[in-house]
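[stage:ingest] chain + small molecule (adenosine-5'-diphosphate)
[stage:ingest] validated
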Amino acid sequence: MSSILLVDDRPENLLALEASLEPLGRRLVSATSGEEALRHLLKEEFAVILLDVQMPGLDGFEVARMIKHREATRHVPILFLTAISKDRTHVFRGYETGAVDYIFKPIDADILRSKVSVFLELHEQRQELGRQEELLRQAQVAELEARSEERYRSLADAMPQIVWTAGPDGVADYVNEGWVAFSGLTLAETAHDGWLITLHPDDLQRTTELWEAALRSGTLFETEYRMRRADGTYRWHLARSLPQRSPDGEVIGWVGTCTDIHDRKRAEDAQVLILEASAVLGTSLDYRRTLAQVAQLAVPRMGDWCAVHVLDDDGSLREIAVVHSNPSKLKFVLELQERYPPDPDAPIGVASVVRTGRSELIPEIADELLVANARDELHLDLIRELALRSWLCVPLTARGRTLGAITFVAAESGRRFDEADLRLAEDLARRAATAIDNAQLYRQAEERAQAARVLASVGDGVFMVDGEDVVRLWNPAAEAITGLGVQSVLGRSAAEAVPGWKQLRPHIPVADAPGPAAPRPETLPLEVSEREIWLSIAGVAIDDGVVYAFRDLTEERKLERMKTDFVATVSHELRTPLAAIYGSAMTVRRRDIELEEDVRLRLLDVIADESNRLAEIVNDLLLASHLDSGELQVSIEQCDPRELAESVLDAARTHLPEAIELSLRAPARLPWVAADHGQLRQVLVNLVENAVKYSPDGGRVELELEPQGAMLRFAVHDPGLGVPENERTRIFEKFYRLDPNMTRGIGGTGLGLYICRELVRRVNGKIWVEPHDGAGSTFVVEIPLADAHPRKRGRRRRKPAARASR
Ligand code: ADP
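[stage:predict] done
[stage:export] tokens:
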């Protein structure tokens, strides 16, 4: 109802006004001062104000000005009531301050009522208009809201995400199409925790706790969990739910979304799995152990069970790991695999994957497939027991070779393998295969390194040529025996690198395989670096070439030849004195002829001399054998060289051929030498005897003594046959003779110089031969001086013998 404000300082006037306006049936509010009027105006809205002009305190004009000044009251019509001020300026001032009319006292009640009615009507019409406007606005807002709600819903339905809203208690009151399509649940089935049945059992507890905490605290709920799709497969989602609040902060509902992050999650999981598997594969070269660990990692991430098979050297498939997420099922798996190992001819399965090197993916194993592939009733029962759902098998392939296969099986989880799983499995298998390959390569490299070490340490020469006859291996012994360095041989054709190989090659026996059936090695000569070496050599053919092994028989050959020479010379050497002894003895024994006494004595001399000669030969043989076995004792003492030389020459003179002249050349004073007296004497005897023996045309044989630094030099010069330069070291070898066939008629065993060399060596002396006067030889022996030799205390000094006459 509209109100009218009546302002007059006189209560009787107010009464009159109230009485006049009563019939209008509106609320009348009276005020006796300007201040009171203003107070009422602050509190309520008035349709019209009747304002007395003359009032004590604030007069009407001032009150009017203040009303017009205030925004909320400036349009309220003011009717001035006045008794006196009828003059124009006064009236004008009233209109100026915002009055709409003047009513002069005494007031005519009718006029007053009709004037006020006009303003009342105006006010009420305006009010009505406002009300209608408000209604209209509300209607429009409602329509707008409805429209936007509709828009939001279709937006929510069109979104790929799952969208829902719930009341403050969390009970869903709206779910979008996305949810219905994903879960197959209606709003009614979803509300009141119905959605929880779609959660993966492993995520259920964690999720419910988080959701309840969010409901209690009215804070953001955000987490990741797996939800079961209508087809039974689980997919990872990111769930977010925000509380909606009223202006005063109260939670009035929830808006939630679930975004499918399955592919991202799977890519992340795959990456983690690949990383972990790579780390495991890199830890050890024992690939059987690392592959078992990889199988552990793959379950349950890649499937409910995982098995790894590898090809053995004999071509059979061997399972090296099997892991099941459900331990109670593992025994069925093991039983299945033990009873029904991979069938090599099956069209699908591990064996076929290994055979073809191609992956196999069966997203959904139909029962018909099980029946078709079951080998018997028990097999089928076992497979059914294991609830096979989906199957994936990828080959372990490295450098084009299939080394085995990894199998992933989905069962209880209800998982279905797809192309993404296949790619992940293949990636994993590639890494695993590389690890196996590396381990095998490492093992081979180790074996090769070991073989190389063995080859490097064997005493036999070993080398290998390839199909093109190019040398691919040449061991240190081959290098040592032939003197051909590995650098000069390796990578070159054998014919080019090994001199004489072309001629040798056709004579070398080559077996197809090593073993008792292989032919015996041949002993063949090879001419390298101007020397002849004898090789006992044989070959064995390998895949791409031939491996030859040889042994240096040069020494054995030499020994062999020496033995033959020895037998020839010694038998000759023995036969000559024996023949002389036999002949002489037979003659002395004859009864039929009377021998003259001097003939008989000469014959007996021959027997004695030749027996002596035989004894000398046997002594030489014994001495040589003692030297070889190291049994000969050496006792070093101080010896007088002159005494030695003279005694040797004296002995030689007793049976000197007439054409030979013997002499000694030595300074007056000579230092003594440190040697074994008897042995040094024997050396000098040998050299002087040889000098005489090998000077068949006679001449002068001279023994020369001369100090030479810390040594004393004994030189035996002869005018004889001489020794060719290339034989000067060889004549010191055992049994070596320059003329074994004795074309010059000079006999010998070839032991003398060998004995000399060995005896001289034992007292740290030296012996060699050099030419003498162009034709003959000088045999030189150097023996350390006694002073240079550490003298032992208490050593016996040998007395110088009496000087022999020349
Ligand atoms: P033997 O004299 O019993 O044959 P040796 O060992 O004493 O054996 O000598 C070995 C060979 O050296 C002899 O066969 C001979 O050919 C050669 N030889 C040794 N001494 C001389 C020499 N003074 N002049 C020439 N040749 C010598």
